[in-house]
Amino acid sequence: MRAKVATCLVIVIVLFDLRVAPVKAHGPQSVDRRVDQLLSQMTIEEKVGQVNQLFYFRQFMQPEMVEPGIREGKIGSLLFVTDPATINRFQKVAVEQSRLKIPLLFGFDVIHGFRTVFPVPLAMASSWDPALVEQAQSIAASEARAVGVRWTFAPMVDIARDPRWGRIVEGAGEDPFLGARIAAAQVRGFQGQDPSSAGRLLACMKHFAGYGAGTGGRDYDSAYISDAELYNVYLPPFKAAVDAGVGSAMSAYMNLNDVPATGNAFLLSDVLRRQWGFKGFVVSDADSVGNLVTHGFAEDKADAAYRAFTAGVDMEMSLPGINTVSMAYATSLTKLVQEGRVTKERLDDAVRRILEAKFKIGLFDNPYVDESRVAAIHNNPEHRRLARVAAQRSMVLLRNEGNMLPLVKGDPKVSSIAVIGPLADSKRDIRGPWTLADDPKSAVSVVEGLRNKVGSSVRVEYAPGVDIRRVYPSIFDIMSGPRPAAWSEAQKVAEFDKAVSLARASDVVVMVLGLHEEMSGEAASQSTLDLPGRQLELLQTVSGLGKPVVLVLINGRPLDISWAASNISAILEAWHPGAEGGNAIADILFGDATPGGKLPVTWPRSAAQIPIYYARNLTQQPESARDFKSRYWDIPTSPLYPFGYGLSYTTFSFSNLRVSKPEVKLGESIEVLADVQNTGKRAGDEVAQLYIHQRYGSASRPVRELKGFERITLAAGEKKTVRFTLGKSELTYWSSAAKGWVQDPSTFDLWVGADSTAPLTTTLKVVR
Ligand code: BGC
User: Fold this and answer.
1) d(CA 190, CA 158)
2) What average pLDDT is seen over the chain?
3) Alpha-carbon distance 231 to 228, whole Å?
């Protein structure tokens, strides 16, 4: 691989000698003037350098492989450099040795934390708490910025309605309204008011657009999405990110309606630029430019560069040495411009946007990073504290029969705990995918968290019981290291028996089951939602012992837990809760925190129900029809748990749903109010959710659509009024009949309640 990398990099280190006075990048000029001044001095090759972004993997590359290219102004950005000394080293070459002294932009995937790992994005969305999401991403930004990373490839805002798709873990789930609120919160968290200010990063919304709709849930596979579904479902989180000021966007890998997203002028020019007025720059996904050839779309690499660049991709992300399709811009764009196939204006346009971003984040004024400050920023105890709070607030209590939870500390019936399962003592899996810059040793496993909680008075013992592994190894094993060797047949039998014996000898069993971190994420699609390996068998065997069993799930997507849902009294969905996950799980299990998270996805009974999501349209033969029902004859059509669902250790009631006016004119807004009361004996959080349904109009609308939510904390017995605004923006949709945005006069059903099946309802009439 190294040889290939070197061969490809030769392309970027061809020397040329043009000596002019450097642009004075400091001073009072406006960004525009500074950019103009630079552009006027740049050669075509230097401009092409700015649109060239390369991966730098310290695992198998050396600085000497990229430094000549930086010196010659042939690289505008590097990704995956996270060592501050190396960042300063490369930056010095750019700003002190290159002709125009343009600083490099260092990018990295800061997805759910950097040094301090927060819960995975799907978990953060389960908190239904945009303020928390914003705070978590601002901490992640500060830690990444501390080492010199200035740009994150986040937020990932792809709507995902197919849990077979591994990257469902990286987003906010199935719903455009929740997705939009979480997307905007992440942009605010990363960028703050101004991405140049201390501790902030430039954000990048991805993957534009429709990546979550890959056929069969297979990663990278083609998506076919109607315009109505695109505008109403897949695009709103991107639009929200743009409205929140996101500085960049990443084009997706896959084919959208037969035109690859990276060569898709409809997406990149019509929607993004013309309809939304997006001013930032667009980067491709890794090698997605050259892969326009692989898609059967571009003729060759030069044509791929032409098609992506003219469609609107400003910068190309390349994996040099790994793919032959890499560096299409670096190898072809100069010639394309010289031949006049790509206009100089288009090149200037792309370079202008990239330089503008570099100016706006303060890179010209402050290109270096202060290495002496890294440790203090990374070791801020407040970051770990917030990671723990975030994990507590992200967890979803799925079942709690007979109020089995919380466990009580000091209860003589809890004097020994068996912690069982392949994920129970794993520091790697508690963190989840996209954790590439932390210290895995600092993560707290469930076993450790429980021991921390109960101290020495309670015996906490652990047995993995079963071994789980992917059939196809993960590409991320390169980064995180391979798993230990698979167990022998004899070991499998011995470990299973050991776990069962441990359970038999303990008062309470905490089963920690689910997925390894590399079983979700990129290139991690799965055909079923079954618990891998013999986990279900282990659960069934242990449950047969008659001990109290709590099931804790560590996973990046809904799984088939139908058996557990009717046989295990307490089930806690912890997702991959991050570095403080073990402590946070212990907090919840022992009632030091009360669960209040809600599902951001519909939870299927099995993969056979996919696609399944709550905001579907009505059918003429619903389940209530006399016959010829739209349903499966062999399994229920309803999900195991609905979108928005989650229990607490207390109970809540909703009442007094009302609207400020029962009838409004098109374009007017009303308020929707409801009272929420904590009817239990302890404080807790409820997420009040507003859903609407338009009864008739220019097109059919979903049975329910989320249009408002608020997470509130109520003391025992306390009652609060929640208030939502419903107006034009909530009632307008893209109609395939009208081929555009419409607000229909119609009657609307409204519901406010605890999940997407909330019964409390009223109506609203919208008239001309
Ligand atoms: C992923 C992107 C990511 C990029 C850089 C790609 O494989 O699809 O989400 O930002 O790699 O790491």
Assistant:
1) 18
2) 95
3) 5
Active site residue 439: no
109 lines ligand 1 (CB under 6 A): yes
Q: Which of 318-322, 340-344, 491-495 has the lowest mean pLDDT?
A: 318-322
Query: For residue 228, which of 614, 679, 742, 705 has the smallest C-alpha distance?
Result: 742
Query: According to DSSP H, which parts of 312-343 are helical?
Result: 328-338
Q: State residue 21's pLDDT score.
A: 39
Whether residue 287 has its Cβ less than 6 Å from ligand 1: no
pLDDT tens for 538-560 read 999 999 999 999 999 999 999 99
pLDDT in tens, 665-684: 999 999 999 999 999 999 99
Q: CB count, 10 Å around CB of 636?
A: 11
Cα of 285 from ligand 1 centre, angstroms:
6
Q: Which atom of ligand 1 is nearest to the CA of 153?
A: 10
Pocket of ligand 1 contains residue 598 by CB under 6 Å: no
C-alpha pair distances (Å), 522 with each of 169, 180, 323, 324, 347: 9, 22, 18, 21, 32
pLDDT value, residue 525 = 97
Q: Is 285's C-beta closer than 6 angstroms to any atom of ligand 1?
A: yes
- Give the 3-state secondary structure of residue 397: strand
Atom number of ligand 1 nearest to Cα 253: 8
Instruction: Determine whether the shortest distance from the Cβ of 158 to ligand 1 is under 6 A.
Output: no
Q: What is the pLDDT of residue 108?
A: 98
- In a mutational test of the pocket of ligand 1, which residue from 111, 315, 317, 322 has the highest number of ligand atoms less than 8 Å from its CB? 317
Strands 746-753 and 761-767, bridge-based pairing: antiparallel
pLDDT tops 70 at residue 603: yes
Task: Tell me the domains of the chain and their CATH numbers.
Answer: 1-16+27-104+301-375 (3.20.20.300), 391-599 (3.40.50.1700), 652-767 (2.60.40.10)
Catalytic residue among 109, 175, 285, 429: 285
Give how far Cα 549 sits from Cα of 28, 90, 459, Å: 67, 54, 16
pLDDT digits (tens, 9 = 90+) for 48-91: 999 999 999 988 899 999 999 999 999 999 999 999 999 999 99
Q: What share of the chain is helix, strand, coil (3-state, %, to 5)?
A: 35, 20, 45
